[in-house]
Amino acid sequence: DDAHLGHARSSVAFDLLRRTLSALDYQVTFVKNFTDIDDKIINKMKSSRKSLETITQSYIQSYKNEMHELGVMDADIEPKATQTLPEIIQFIGVLLEKKMAYTLDDGIYFDTTKDSKYLSLSHMIIEEKSTQARAKTNDDKKNQKDFALWKFSKEGEPTYPASFGAGRPGWHIECSCMVEKHLANTHGNYQIDIHAGGADLLFPHHENEAAQTRSKSGQELSKYWMHNGFVTINGEKMSKSLDNSFFLKDALRIYDGEILRFYLLATHYRANFNFSEEDLLHTKKRLDKIYRLKKRVYGIKASSVSATFKNALLEALSDDLNISVALAAIDEWVSRSNEKLDAQPKNKGLKQTINADIQYLDTLLGIGYKDPYEYFQLGITEEEKNKINTLIKARHDAKKNRDYAQADSIRETLKEMKIQLMDRADTTQWEKIDAQ
Questions:
Q1: Which residues contact 228 (CB under 8 A, 6 or more apart)?
Q2: Against a cut of 0.85, is the pTM above it?
Q3: Which of 6, 55, 399, 416 is 20 to 30 A off residue 27, Cα-Cα?
């Protein structure tokens, strides 16, 4: 389906993690997988009468386009489940051989009782259904917690050949196999360093991934597990059933991607995030201040980033991505930089350092990369821009003809349109007051 704010929150949070690790001189390989075969996709195939490839490729591309608008970098490797079928089949075969899995009429299931560490990640407490309840749901699984590794073929569903019976993979097995194929260290206690995702994936998805990998390889899947908090909209948990699943494409029609990114970054990744327009606009004012500072050093070539500024940000983000401390350091830097510029308005070296610091914000946080004048024109339609530029040209011509009364009249007209002019030696810049 289309990406929603929950996907955006997770992607932005772990894009920050990736950028921080790189800034700390770690060599980072970042993998983001695409599940392109599961029950929801099959249902969409039936309702739309489109092929699996048509549906999945369309949503993958729209997701990537929206992530780019948020400043989220592409992963180094972007595998798909359907490209990992030989590994999935081999993985399940090993679990069957080790008697960690068993076969029922509708598929192959993982036997959770064979994994002594099952639920050690999520610490969930699950009560077994009664025999009577299991009979009512025709649930022949040995245990309630057991989950499907492979689902045997059904009419109208995609199917793939396998020695244990044609069918398709379950959701959880896909991810363990993609980790093993593209990232896994076959030596040591852990296959990968960090596994990230939303808190809603902790159970059962991540728990089941960990169990499968542990049972097949004898290794733990990941040394560190990082989970971002839930997203609510005006205090209500985001849910399609509540008709408040705020699609990212809808948010991007209203808000610029960089502003939305900054808003999503401003809450610590583990905390639950409540989306409200009032909070977004409040957070935007922080970004405005960065761009107003950028205007003051406009056109000056950057030198080297300030070590004090860089170290303050990295120290904060090294503490479990402590964004609150990082943003406080940015606020202090903006204030201090403005004070220095007020005292030394012609200090070129100072301006070069400030420009370098702003460029570092782009590298580390993915913000501050726009032309500052264009930033303050966000939310203005092309038609409005053409009208404004026409009036500015008319004012320029009036001044050239020494018709200063006409020039002043045009400035007043623009002021009524909430347009502020900044005259420079060779051009006139403008911005919309209180622009998005």
A1: 9, 10, 13, 14, 196, 197, 198, 199, 269, 270
A2: yes
A3: 6
